[in-house]
Structures are given as C-alpha cells and as structure tokens.
Amino acid sequence: DSGVTQTPKHLITATGQRVTLRCSPRSGDLSVYWYQQSLDQGLQFLIQYYNGEERAKGNILERFSAQQFPDLHSELNLSSLELGDSALYFCASSVVDRAGEQYFGPGTRLTVT
Amino acid sequence: DQQVKQNSPSLSVQEGRISILNCDYTNSMFDYFLWYKKYPAEGPTFLISISSIKDKNEDGRFTVFLNKSAKHLSLHIVPSQPGDSAVYFCAASDVDYGGSQGNLIFGKGTKLSVKP
Description:
- The structure holds 2 protein chains of 2 kinds.
- Chain A is mainly β.
- Chain A has strands spanning 5-7, 10-13, 19-24, 31-37, 43-50, 53-57, 64-68, 74-78, 87-94, 103-104, 108-112.
- By secondary structure, chain B is an all-beta fold.
- Chain B has no helices and 11 strands.
- Mean pLDDT of chain B is 91; it is low at 96-100.
C-alpha cells in the first residue's frame, strides 16, 4: 500500500459528460501528479501541483483541469468526455516538487460509452 | 516522438536466472532515472533509481546501470523469482535535485514473466 488513495476505483459514463476523480496523497507529501494510461500508450504525465499551486503541465487536454486543495487532496476534472478518454488515471505524490520517487495510487479506470 | 523507449514489450526468464530489462532515451537533459514495477490492478511501485552522476546503483537483487554516452539504462534482476513477474516501466526526469519540476516521462513498459 503506497498510502495514496484514489476514488472512485471504476467509473462508467457517457460521451459528453463530466466526471471528477479524487486523490489523497501520502501523509506529508506536498506534490501531486496526475497521469493517464491508455491501452496503447505508456503513462502520460498530465499535470502537477505542489502545495496548492500548479507546477507543471504535460499532455493535458483543455477539457481537463485539476486543482489541489488546502488539505492537499487533488481533483482531476474531465469534461465533454469522448470515447478516447477511456483510460486508467493515476495519481502520484511525493514529498518535494523535484525529481525523485513518486508513489502511485491504485488508479481510477474510466470507461466512456 | 517517444523520449523514453522500452523496445521489448515482453521478456520471459527462468527462475533463478538473470533478467535484463533495457531502456533507451533520447533527451540528453534527462538526469534522473527510475524503474517502476506494476502488477495488474495496482498502481506502479517504485523499485530503484539512479542519478546521472552515477553509472550503477544496487539494491538487493536489483541493479540499475546507466550508460550516458549511449543514452541507455538497464535493470538487472538476479536471481529472478516468480514474484518478479510484472510490467516494468523505465522513467526519466529532466530536472535534478534543486529544480522545480518532478514530472516523469515513462516508457511503455516491458512485461516480465519468470517461469518456475
């Protein structure tokens, strides 16, 4: 158990809808990262927050947004969902905002029908 | 274009033998490298890392080798055990300690099967 929790585990929704994925980092970790893993792709970095502030952006679509709250949990919002958004979404956390080990949650499997 | 490549999608090894997983990268700015192991229905688990100032790092049965001139790293598992069967991801970061970013660039993974 990495100490990172993600809810929900599974999510099935229709195209055009909006969903929110939630992540609680390990106790003491200030940095949260979101990654997407599609069937034919490796883990793709989406966005990073550090202590409530956006720190880095990767391949995140404009339809997606995220935030980190004062209690350090983070939410990833996905809107106007398309079939191609079906994927595993992982959250990871680390103590600092620089290169180092990241600890991953179990992921949320999103299925868009 | 993939910056981190794991060219072998799968690898099968006999229990007790050495497993060698390979990873190539293209970005010369990468200076910190990690290996993660992933079991089905779980998130990736950190295994071992290496900074670009080193060429080898060892942790028990796991050793990572870095060849900067070839932009290549490898993970050696000796001896391999059936419980090592998992998908192994190589990852790289382009900011060393003291920087302000930590996002990782991952390869697509190599599925290791260790047969009893």
